Amino acid sequence: PDRLRVPLVRRDGELAEASWDEALAAAAEGLGRVVTATGGASVAVYLGNPNAHTIAGALYAPQLVRALKTRQVFSASTLDQMPK
Fold first, then answer.
1. Cα 50 to chain center, whole Å?
2. What is the C-alpha to C-alpha distance for residues 23 and 45, in angstroms, rounded to an integer?
3. Is the confidence at residue 80, as pLDDT, over 80?
4. In angstroms, what CA-CA distances link 83 with 44, 52, 65, 77?
5. Does residue 7 have a cis bond before it (omega within 30 degrees)?
6. I need a labelling partner for 40 at 20 to 30 A (CA). Which of 19, 46, 47, 68 fits?
7. Count of beta carbons in the 10 Å neighbourhood of residue 46
8. Looking at residue 83, what is its pLDDT?
9. Which residues pair with 10 in a beta bridge?
10. What distance separates the 2 farthest-apart alpha carbons in the chain?
11. Alpha helices, DSSP H only, in 16-54?
């Protein structure tokens, strides 16, 4: 019963139900504000299951990384395997 079934956005300091369009717009606006204020290197992308192993992941992940202008790209290999 405590499972989220709809997106939530913060309005006037309180979480409220929202449409997917509204929630994604709020996420894009917040991320854009961070990138504008501090640069692309302030955000990172993690590529893991399932997005790293699908054709969509291969097609869209590089575009996302370029759009964010970040070199901070991580995966299970960089986090788990490189220290070995």
1. 14
2. 20
3. no
4. 19, 20, 24, 9
5. no
6. 19
7. 13
8. 62
9. 15
10. 47
11. 20-38
Are 27 and 56 in contact by the 8 Å Cβ rule? The answer is: no
Strands (E) located in the chain: 8-11, 14-17, 45-47, 73-75
For 68, counting Cβ atoms within 10 Å of its Cβ (0-12 exposed, 13-18 middle, 19+ buried), the class is buried
* Average of per-residue pLDDT across 47-62: 81
CA–CA distance, 74 with 83 (Å, rounded to integer): 13
User: Please, are residues 31 and 47 in contact by the beta-carbon 8 Å criterion?
Assistant: no
Mean pLDDT of the chain: 88
DSSP 54: S
